[in-house]
Amino acid sequence: MQQLTYVKTGVLRWDEVKAPTLTDQTSALIRPFVVARCDLDAAFLRRDVFHLYRIGQLFYRVDSLIREMIRPDLLKGPFPMGHECVAEVLEVGTEVHGFFKGDHVIVPFQVSCGECPMCARSLTSQCQVHGAFDMFSGIGRHTDRGGMLSDVVLVPRARKMLIPLPPCLDPLSMASASDNLPDAWSRVAPELLGCPGKDVLVLGGSTQSIGLYCVAFAAAMQTSRVDYVEVNSARRLLASKLGATMVTAEPADVDRQYDLVINGTNRKQAIADSVRFLKPGGVCTSMNIYFSKSTPVPFFQLYAKNLTLKSGLGNPMVDIPPMLDFIKEHQVDVGGVTSRVADWEHAHEAFLEDTTKVVVHRKPLFS
Ligand SMILES: [Zn+2]
Ligand SMILES: [Zn+2]
Q: Using CB atoms within 10 A as the burial measure, which of 148, 183, 215, 330 is most buried?
């Protein structure tokens, strides 16, 4: 089969590789036909993150937990590319009920069992069977399951890992439903669903599309206002179209305080800025991944203003179904975040482009 392989920074290559086969009766084989570039993919495709990580390790600047949790050759190619997709089912094991050849499905980017004590608590990212970094490609373990830019991908734990795509939703606009979309949902929904009238600030930046998905979701949740700070002018324009109340490039232009501040920048001072922008009782949720040993947090402000600071991996297996229901019901224009659509065979070029959200597609086999 054909597979798009990450070789090194700036180099993607189509390879002919052996297709995975069903290893047990709880798995499934799928054929992705719409794939999105994750914001994290964009970071390591255009910058030598592996080299930066090794330097950080050398000088003891990165958190030691990274070494324990992630394999040592972090982001070192070659590995199969892609972990956000809409796919069609090719084959399922005898223990996978309710799915048939040709069904359109979403697959969480993290593999979780869905049944262990952590999964039962909805913390599927901390699955006790698969761990936090068992993913289809990228920073996780390298496996022979294939990446989402492969012709065939092996999905373990398919009864839980396959999530049906509602027929009324356009596969192209759901391209990031494996990862970036539910990540945004997990930052916004717990604070805003059922709590109308809140003020929200999104600090956009390193998490390029996720910040914009946050804007789209928040605007659909009866917020009082959703403001957006971002140096990138194209993303400011997208944020306005998605319903942002005020957009600016400069944090200094922000002259009010908010119930919820979502940090999507990798600046070290961003947590301190976010806390400064919060009303008493407010919540800051940070979706940026800080690899460094320490990040400044103004703890007295947290204490004095009764603030809450949140971070953490998303739990896509849990978040995808309610997110799809919300998108359906409120017709959220999440597809408006996509800035580049390309044909499948051009993925090796399109995925390297300097743009916010790349989506590639090909015709499904069965419909
Ligand atoms: Zn991702
Ligand atoms: Zn589990």
A: 215
pTM above 0.70, yes or no: yes
Q: Would residue 316 count as lying in a domain?
A: no
Domain range for residue 265? 180-310
Q: What is the Å distance from ligand 2's center to 111 Cα? A: 9
Q: What is the CATH number of the domain that holds 276?
A: 3.40.50.720
**Whole-number average pLDDT of the chain:** 92
The angle formed by the CA atoms of residues 134, 324 and 228, to the nearest 5 degrees, is: 85
- Per-residue pLDDT of 290-330, as tens digits, reads 877 888 899 999 999 999 999 999 999 999 999 999 999 99
Helix (H) or strand (E) holding 189: helix 180-192
Ligand nearest to the CA of 207: 1
Please tell me the number of the ligand nearest to residue 85's CA: 1
Q: Within a domain: residue 315?
A: no
Number of domains in the chain: 2
* Distance between CA atoms of residues 99 and 91, nearest Å: 9
**For residues 24 and 11, what is the distance between their CA atoms, to the nearest angstrom?**
34
Whole-number Å distance, alpha carbon 70 to ligand 2 midpoint, is 18
Nearest alpha carbon to residue 32 among 315, 360, 339, 328 = 360
Ligand 1 centroid to 299 CA: how many Å? Answer: 30
Residues 230 and 282 in one domain: yes
pLDDT confidence of 74, banded at 50, 70, 90? low
Q: Judge if 213 and 352 occupy the same domain.
A: no
- Regarding whether 246 and 165 lie in a shared domain, the answer is no
Task: Give the ligand whose atoms come closest to the C-alpha of residue 40.
Answer: 1
